[in-house]
Amino acid sequence: MIDLRSDTVTKPTESMRLAAYQAEVGDDVYREDPTVNQLEETAAEMLGKEAALFVTSGTQGNQIAALTHCRPGDEAILEANAHIFLYEAASFSALAGVQSRPIIGDRGAMKPSEVEAAIRVEDIHFPRTSLICIENTHNKAGGAVLPLENMEAIYHVAEKYQIPVHLDGARLFNASVASGVSVKEYAAFTDTVQFCLSKGLGAPVGSIIAGSKSFIEQARKWRKRLGGGLRQSGIIAAPGLVGLRENVERLADDHANAKKLADGFANINGLIVEGEVETNIILVNLKNTELSVEAFLEKLQIQGIVAGAYGSNTIRFVTNYGVTKDDVETVLKKVQMIVR
Ligand code: TLP
Q1: Among 199, 209, 314, which is best to mutate for testing ligand 1, by the most ligand atoms less than 8 A from CB?
Q2: Ligand 1 — pocket residues by CB below 6 A?
Q3: 47: closest CA among 160, 161, 136?
Q4: Does the reported pTM lie above 0.90?
Q5: Segment 214-264, tens digit of pLDDT
Q6: Under CATH, which number does the domain 12-246 receive?
Q7: Is the dihedral of CA 64, 87, 103, 72 positive or negative?
Q8: Rounded to the nearest whole angstrom, what is the distance from the C-alpha of residue 340 to the centroid of ligand 1?
Q9: Using 50, 70 and 90 to split pLDDT, how confident is the model at 340?
């Protein structure tokens, strides 16, 4: 099976399995797991932040950000197609009591002037704006890389009103490898960052949330409240460290494969590739074909390929290290056959 549903589907590499086996562990709630401590220190250092926390998932990292930065009854500004807004089961409102204020962006990038205009003034009728969220790469915009200048401009607006900026950087390393901008440079225009170890980096579990020491202290308590205080979690942190050490540069292979797929799809009559493919996500629109999303996916599956539905006419393909160059050729051949 060629699995292009997501980069979350990757299985841990041999070196990850070995690292898990050999990991030195302790009770992480007592902060005695040396491997978790090492992962958190490494991640904080890479991002240029004071401290970091190993959390169970990207969703948990984003929720901890809302819970720590905001109070119930506050408002968070975010992009209208942000993962937090679309795909986290309304947890900002359900868990943190935070109302979302969506702003439509261009390939995921909100206009700084529109962000500024959405910040609430003090008024008895209004919630307090206590968080601005950005997403890089932007999933729903097809893995678009948020320009550093956009992040800088939004950060300056936020600074002016003393509102923290949280980056959902589930795929921040993809952004970095594609643009040549370091993750530290991106993180400099944020207060807190969440990135996933379990997507392109290939680890089986986990995300990192990073920020100031005092933020991470409070975040640690929120993680505990959410039931995310783990014990000998070095077993799962060790593959994360391997991901950071061994799998960052190879994301370029996923991007090259995605580009190849996108170019191939664009040459198949009827298929429309939505937007430029900058990283590892390709969105293909079927509206000019006779096929519904369901029918297309079913035919694809019969050919041993799986992808994801991403809107009424759109299919999402995500390259990852389980997908080879040969797989790309196979997918193009099969899709050509299906569409014809
Ligand atoms: N995204 C998943 C699905 O939930 C859609 C995927 O397959 O792409 N932020 C962004 C930008 C994400 O893409 C995701 C996962 C998350 C946060 C949440 O991470 P997890 O799945 O670890 O909770």
Answers
A1: 199
A2: 6, 8, 57-59, 83, 87, 135, 139, 168, 170, 196, 198, 207
A3: 136
A4: yes
A5: 999 999 999 999 999 999 999 999 999 999 999 999 999 999 999 999 999
A6: 3.40.640.10
A7: negative
A8: 33
A9: confident
CATH pick for 250-339 out of 3.90.1150.10, 3.40.50.2300, 3.30.450.40, 3.30.1130.10: 3.90.1150.10
Q: Residue 229 has what pLDDT?
A: 97
User: Among residues of the chain, what percentage have pLDDT more than 70?
Assistant: 100
Residue 22: both structure tokens together: 């050999």
CATH 3.90.1150.10 maps onto the chain at 250-339
Q: Is 31 left (phi over 0), alpha (psi -120 to 50) or beta?
A: left
pLDDT (tens digit, 9 = 90+) per residue, 29-66?
999 999 999 999 999 999 999 999 999 999 999 999 99
Matching residue, tokens 């041999």 = 14
Q: Of the residues 7, 8, 135, 315, which should be mutated to test ligand 1's pocket, given the most ligand atoms within 8 Å of the CB?
A: 8
Q: What is the DSSP letter of 29?
A: G
CATH 3.40.640.10 placement within the chain: 12-246
Residue ranges in 34-74 assigned as alpha helix (H): 34-47, 58-69
Which atom of ligand 1 sits closest to the CA of residue 87? 4
Residue 124 Cα, ligand 1 centroid: separation in angstroms?
36
